[in-house]
Amino acid sequence: AVRANAAQRLGRHQDSVLAYAVALQSRPAESRWLLGMAVSLAAMGQTVQAGAMVERARASGPISPDVALYLRQQGVPMSDGK
Question: What is the pTM of this model?
Answer without folding.
Answer: 0.92
